[in-house]
Every structure is written in structure tokens, then in C-alpha cells.
Amino acid sequence: MTGWEELASTALVGTDRRPYQGDLLDAAAVEVARRRAGRKTGAVAQQASHTAGDGSSEASLEAQAAPVEERVAVGRRAAERLVRIMGGEHERLLPEWLAAAAATGRRVPPYVLPELLEKGRRDRSIRVHLGVLAGQRGRWLAGLNPAWDYLLEEPTGETWELGGAADRRAHLRTLRTADPAQARRLLESTWERETPDDRAEFVEVLADGLSMDDEPFLESALDDRRREVRQAAANLLTRLPGSRMSQRMAERARACVTISRKVIAVEAPRDCDKAMERDGIRPKPPRGIGERAWWLQQILARAPLSIWGHPPAALLKMKIPDWDAEVKAAWVRAAVLQKDPEWARAMFGWDPIADLLESLPADEQQKLAADFVKKHDLDSQLIMVLGGVSSHWREGLATAVLRKIVKVATRQPWNLGELVKLAGERIDPALFPLALSYSPVESVQQVAALLRFRADMYKELHP
User: Fold this and answer.
1) In degrees rounded to 5, what are phi and psi of residue 316?
2) What is the model's pLDDT at position 42?
């Protein structure tokens, strides 16, 4: 009887009738991983024996045993819920389950690893927490299966000196929170040795705790050979009105725009020189946008919002004879880049896009979104706005959405699918009694059921 046949037979009759030496689920997970990798046990033994050079396949297999786990696994009920989610029951909750589980500092049990790693292979968005959750066994399995070796690039908790790129980003992010200056100095000490891809991602980490102390380093990054590095540095310098780059952009903006009384006169730039490119202006426009319009939008988006001398609400009432749409689109982008709450609030009234909400505190995000839900019909724009509001939605926004669901259910019940899912996934799960008692309408009860599912999920992860 082969190893796989023994596992299958034991699983069918039970360990009471056929005792098994070791952990049956662990062994099954290993065998599944090997088979998915196209490596039967014998093949692995042969390869290991060849590598060891001692002719002993049994000894080599012993050497390939999975390392001992350092973290405790989540509880049985939590693991069972993970299996249900991966099996298709509320599968959009998988990222939330993974994030919540990773926050506990625990790992997943071995028997779920093959399916979880396979999902990570197909969906990059869920990988961020897998380096921790998969544990030592997961990394061992990733070494057996090239399709899963992406896991070896995810953060595991290693240090700056010993970790991979993801571990080093995580370390830098943690240090940045505690000591921004020390984090920047650490990055500067290894900057010349970093790969271009890593340099771009490391620069983005400096967004937390950003200050004028970072300006000299970011200014020098504008000379980097990699465009992504220059763009990342320019985006951060845009958030520093006192930076040299922001002042250069202010000069360019003043050369393009003149405000007199209630009229804004605009003359778009006629060329894009090397100095502009160094400051993050991309010379080639996307399809459908003219060059001058493209250069104008980028300059105004990176110019300090304080240069306009008027509050955004007043500027929006002024007449712009030429380049009106381009100027306002640039102001939207500026509010997003510079994370200015006053401008984000005003521009949301002109163009309600989800990116603007990120510049606002969570309470204000939810208030603006609730007002938008009350005044706006159910369409793709409403869904996109709600998608930009961070979880967990509190009672004000939750009630506005539930009211909208009840209203639409009487006229267009077929149009509620995405709103019902979004409500169930984003409303604070502690509010499931509110949804349960809000209305007997079927779609509201579906929201309540999903909230209850999430509430139970969190309880299982925090027993």
C-alpha cells in the first residue's frame, strides 16, 4: 500500500479502527502538496537522495521534514469557517478573515495550506498576510512547489538585515511609525544597494510620518534612473508645500493661471522640458487627452493648494473660460495627492469619487457617504463611493444603506445584489441585530445573515 493509499484508507475508516502514527491531517496536507507539485513521495526521495549524495532516500526524506512551527494555529472552529469561505460560502470575506487571523499572531492549520496557497497563486490580493499565516510548514511547501514560491517573497517577521524585500518593507514601516528619522536613515544607508523595484516601494513607506526632514532625501530621489522611483518621490514632495519641488510647481502654476475677480484665466503650457520631467511630469499623455491638457493637469495637481488664495468653494463658483474641466480635474487630483480635507470635501461635491474620501477622517467619510446615499439613486457611482469608505460602517451609514435597500427592493429588487453584498461586508458586524430588526424585507435579512456570519468569524478568532 502506498503512502497516499494508507492515508486515504485511514481517513475513510477512522483512526479509532486504524491507528496512524503522527498527525493524519498534517501528513495528508504534505502529500496533497507534493502531488499538486507533480512530485510523488518517491520522486521527492530520489531528488533529496541525489542532493544529499549518500544514496539513502529514507534519510533524505527525513531531512526534508517540515520544520517545527513557532506559532499556535487558530482554533478548530475558525479553521472550519476558513474552509467554508474558501469553498465558496461568502468567498469575498477571505481577505477579511486572513487580515483578522494575522492580527491574532496565529497561523492556519496545515490541512488548509494546499488550497489556501493555490488561491494565493491565482489571487495576488490575498498574499499580504500569507507569509505569516502559512507558518513554517507553508514556506516548506512553497519550496516543494514552484507554483507557490510567491510565498517566499511575503513578509514573515524577519529583520531588515535577514529578511526578503517584503520583510524589509514591513520592518521599515514599523520603524517609521516609531521613529521616522531613524527609518529614513536606515533606508539611506542601503539605498545604493537596493534594486529599482525595491527603491520605489521603500520610498512609498515614507508616506507615514512624512515631514520636511525627509525633503533632502526625496529631492535626491528625483534623479533616480527608475521612473517609478521618481514618481513616488514626487508624490510625497507634493504633500510638502515647503519642498523645493512644490515651489517649482507653484511657479509653473502661476505662469499658467491668473485669477481676477470672478474669472480664472488659463494658458496651458506649450512644452514639457527636462526639468518638468524630473519633477514628475510625464510628457506622454494617455490616449484621448491632448499634450497641453495633460501637462496642465499635472502641474496644477502638484502645485501647493495654498497658492490659489481663495477657499475651494469660492473657486468652484468662478468662471473658467478655457480649460475648465482640466483645471477642476487637476484640483481633484491635488486634493487626493496632498490629502487636504477642505479641498477633498469641496471637490467631492463637484466630483464624488472614492479617492477623495481617503483624505477625510473616518467619521466624516461615513457622514459624506451617508448623505450621498440619501440623495443619490442606486447606480455604479453609488457603489464606487461606498466601496471607498473604510470598514466598519457605523450606525449612521448603516441605516442610510439599509433604508436604500428597502426602498429599492419595492421597485427594482433585481438591482440590489452588489449593494446587499457590500453592506454585509462593510457594516460593523456588531450591528447585525440592527439589520435583523430593521425590516423583514428579504434583502435586508440577507445583510443581517452576512453580518452575523462575520460576527461569529471574529468571535472564533478571539476565543
Assistant:
1) -65, -20
2) 38
For the four alpha carbons of 30, 35, 38 and 40, in that order, the dihedral sign comes to positive
Q: Tell me the C-alpha distance between 64 and 7, whole Å.
A: 19
Output b/e per residue, 307-322; b: 16+ Cβ within 10 A. bbeeebeebeeeebee
Closest CA to 281 of 266, 296, 270: 296
Which residues share a beta bridge with 111? none
Q: CA-CA distance, 16 to 3, in Å (whole number)?
A: 19
- In sequence order, which residues have a C-beta less than 8 Å from that of residue 198 and are 6 or more positions away? 165, 168
Joined grid coordinates for residue 23: 498527525
Return the C-alpha cell found at 405: 435597500
What pLDDT score was predicted for residue 440?
96
DSSP characters over 38-98: T--HHHHHHHHHHHHTSS-HHHHHHHTSPPPP-SPBPPHHHHHHHHHHHTTTTGGGHHHHH
Query: Please, what sign has the CA dihedral across residues 142, 148, 153, 154?
Result: negative
Radius of gyration, CA atoms only, the chain: 28
Identify the H or E element spanning 101: helix 94-103
Assigned C-alpha cell, 107: 497561523
Contact 269, 285 (CB under 8 A): no
Which pLDDT belongs to residue 19?
65
Amino acid 217 reads F
- For residue 229, the one-letter residue type is V
Give pLDDT, residue 117: 96
- Give mean pLDDT in consecutive 10-residue pieces for the chain, a chain of 463 residues: 56 56 60 50 36 38 67 95 96 96 94 95 91 91 91 71 75 90 92 89 93 97 93 95 96 96 94 94 93 97 95 95 96 95 94 92 93 94 93 95 96 92 97 96 97 98 89
